[in-house]
Amino acid sequence: MQLSNMAKNAMLQGLADILNSGSNSTLSIYVDTTLAVELTLTNPIELDITAGVLTFKTPPEAIAVASGVPTSAKLLDATGALVADYTAAEIALNKDKIYQGGYVGILSLKVRI
Prior knowledge:
The chain is mostly beta strands. It is built from one helix and eleven strands.
């Protein structure tokens, strides 16, 4: 099955609607199993939905609570329910390593269908 861009965009808008429901959703970034930093996504989360790609607005930086090389991330809705799991390679952070007490941000976050 090949989906049209219109269908892909509609599916991604549904995802954006879930993440925009309630207060802000979050992106939790982990070093192994330890939560290193939690970024609060702005509402609405989407910067653009075009050609089957959801591009997120860049959230404000946050202060890290642990140090290390990021290994994974979890996208959570406003209730804290898991929406998506990411590997570290799928998220472009502004630093290669996270330092406790330092600011961490992302350069980009996208979902592609």
